[in-house]
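queue> pop job 88
queue> type: inverse folding (structure -> sequence)
queue> payload:
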């Protein structure tokens, strides 16, 4: 995992973090120098190959009125050396081969009245293992479908303009 931290006003430092324990494995000022085949962690005594991703995403934002916004995106990601937890969800991680993740997201935000906002979101994700022991299988921790619906209401009619209540439901598929 990469983590960027600012040292000075214009200096940026890249830290390579161990995915197993979070320890710093390497530190550099240039991203192009993070190119090792294997990182050994002295804290958890594990060796990990760098997790590298290639991603293409196309998105849009449609705002037909002041009170309606529609956002959407299509994405295609290839993730190499994806980490998975051990049996029974243990904190000992291992690396899969290559994972291919394709999907679409849609979000609609609507201001129904000056006091009532509604938010709907849906995503469809097809995440499959391309290589390794589980080739062809779906990635267990990534649901195929997710949806949510939320409402937010300002209590101005009750004389409480600074107070807002909200609630919603979320669906997470298999």
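queue> result:
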């Amino acid at each position: 995992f990469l983590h960027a931290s600012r040292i000075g006003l214009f200096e940026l430092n890249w830290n390579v973090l161990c995915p197993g324990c979070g320890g710093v494995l390497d530190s550099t000022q240039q991203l192009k120098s993070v190119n090792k085949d294997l990182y050994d962690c002295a804290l958890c005594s594990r060796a990990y190959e760098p997790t590298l991703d290639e991603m293409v995403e196309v998105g849009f934002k449609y705002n037909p009125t002041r009170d309606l916004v529609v956002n959407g995106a299509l994405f295609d990601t290839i993730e190499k050396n994806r980490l998975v937890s051990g049996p029974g969800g243990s904190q000992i991680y291992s690396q899969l081969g290559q994972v291919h993740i394709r999907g679409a997201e849609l979000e609609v935000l609507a201001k129904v009245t000056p006091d009532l906002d509604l938010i709907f979101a849906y995503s469809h994700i097809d995440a499959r293992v391309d290589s390794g022991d589980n080739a062809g299988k779906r990635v267990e921790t990534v649901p195929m479908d997710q949806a949510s619906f939320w409402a937010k209401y300002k209590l101005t009619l009750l004389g409480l303009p600074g107070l807002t209540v909200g609630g919603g439901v979320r669906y997470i598929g298999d």
